[in-house]
Structure formats: structure tokens, C-alpha cells
Amino acid sequence: MLKLWNKYRISNIPSLIFLDATTGKVVCRNGLLVIRDDPEGLEFPWGPKPFREVVAGPLLRNNGQSLESSSLEGSHVGVYFSAHWCPPCRSLTRVLVESYRKIKEAGQKFEIIFVSADRSEESFKQYFSEMPWLAVPYTDEARRSRLNRLYGIQGIPTLIVLDPQGEVITRQGRVEVLNDEDCREFPWHPKPVLELSDSNAVQLNEGPCLVLFVDSEDDGESEAAKQLIQPIAEKIIAKYKAKEEEAPLLFFVAGEDDMTDSLRDYTNLPEAAPLLTILDMSARAKYVMDVEEITPAIVETFVNDFLAEKLKPEPI
């Protein structure tokens, strides 16, 4: 059962996911919304539709101006699921307003669409008044619901960044915005290996993660560790992308700081560095490779053995 939780990155319950029985591919992540919105099954089999089709219709600015969704053509788009009642949402919105301004001032074609999860139209209007971008009208509940279904939204705030063709670049827009306040890496194509930080540590809860702990007091140690892991990470990501599936592992390098110390304490890991681990928070399981020297061959064998279910987990 835990394998299914990890495979489909389940973070909330109840969750209902529809699959294509022939291919095993995910048809729809938000089955509960499907049942609510289409109780008679008129849209069965509920397969994903293009972003342009789902978002089609009028979009609002907070001054009351209305634009057609066709105005988004040729632009990168951020689809922002948020609500005024959610404190992390309000914090992210303040940062995102500045990011939006910097990206536009740099001459990039970028637009954000606010998809509200507010509990009243009054609350929506109050919150939207702080935003310089577009929104799906609050009264268009069907379109808001279809966008939630399209991206399988399980929590807010969530920022999905799309390329001009409407394809997903990253589902981790929140993390990217917080990590790149100058927006130098926009549109934030995913990196195969991340340096673990306060802002991206939330991703440790999204499924199994390979974490290589290093002694960051040694100059260049973190960068060398990233270079060591990257070829293996790229190989795994490419393999699953070819199957149109998400990679079964995220890859991190962790230096020495308070957040990393807390993670070691929580997972009861030894203080050794370097220390190669796979942490599976949802299964409360860890896999530890404590060797003096970590080589690409050791990392690749460790990853392949994990994916082949040859490793014995220790409890977290």
C-alpha cells in the first residue's frame, strides 16, 4: 500500500486517482472533484485536457477589466492556487508580487492566473486587490474546479509554471520563487539535484528522496557532491520521462546548518559526512549507505537497488 502512496505522491486523504487500465498512466489525480463536478459521468473517462481548453474564457484584472484567455498566447504562465484565509499563501503572494514585477520589467512575456480557494466572493475580492495579475472569476466555480483537477492540486499555495505551449515546466513554483528572489533562473526549469534549504525541504514529504549529506565547511564540497549525483539523477529522470511518468526519486545535497541538523535528529541519522541516504517520510523509512568514499558507482548501485526493492528499510 505504501508503494502506491509513494508512486502517486499522495499527501492528503481522501484521494481518488483514475488510471488508464491499459497503460497504467494517470488519467486524473483529483477524482473526488470529478465525482462532485460530473456525478453522471458525462465527461468520462475524464482524461486531461490542454490548458488552453480548460482555461478558456474571460479573465479579470482587479480594476474590473476583462481579458480573453487567448491573450495569454506566447507567454509563460503561472497558475496560482491560493486563498486569503491561508497564511502561507499571503506570505507567498507578497514575494510573488515582486517576482512578477521583476520578470515583467526584464521584458519577459509572463502572466499569472489566480485560481481562488477563498470561501466567499468578498474574501476573493479583498485578496485579489493585492495582485497585479489576472484571475479566473470567482463566480466561475466550474472553471476553477477544472483547473484544480487538471493539475491534481492537493494543497495551497501551489504555483504551476507553464511554457508558452501550455506544458508544465515546474509544479514547484513556490519553492523556485522563494529560492530565486531576483528571478535570474526564470522560468525555473527543474534542476536534477537540489541543495537542501528551508524553502525546498517541504519536498522531502512528497515521496522518496536521495539525500547526500556533506561537510559544507569544506570549500566546494556541496558543488562536488552535486556533480557526483547529477549524472545518475539525469539518467533516472530521463528514463521515467520517456515513459511519461514522474521520477520515483528526488535528489538533494545537504550541507551543515540548523535545518540539516534537525533533519538528522528527526530521522536519527549518524553524524558522518559524507553520508548517502534515501529518506521516505510518508513510509517513515530510511536507507543508509555509510561509507568513507562515495563514488558514482556506489550511488548508482544504491539507487538501482532501492528501485528494485532490494534494500531493507530502517524505521525513522
UniProtKB/TrEMBL annotation:
A Pfam family this chain is assigned to: Thioredoxin_8
InterPro entries: NRX_PDI_b, Thioredoxin-like_fold, Thioredoxin-like_sf, Thioredoxin_domain, TryX_NRX_thioredoxin_dom
EC annotation from Swiss-Prot or TrEMBL: 1.8.1.8
Top-level taxon: Eukaryota
Catalytic activity: [protein]-dithiol + NAD(+) = [protein]-disulfide + NADH + H(+); [protein]-dithiol + NADP(+) = [protein]-disulfide + NADPH + H(+)
Thioredoxin domain ranges (all copies): 45-195
Family statement drawn from the similarity comment of this UniProt entry: Belongs to the nucleoredoxin family.
Protein name per Swiss-Prot or TrEMBL: Nucleoredoxin
Native source organism of the sequence: Microtus ochrogaster (Prairie vole)
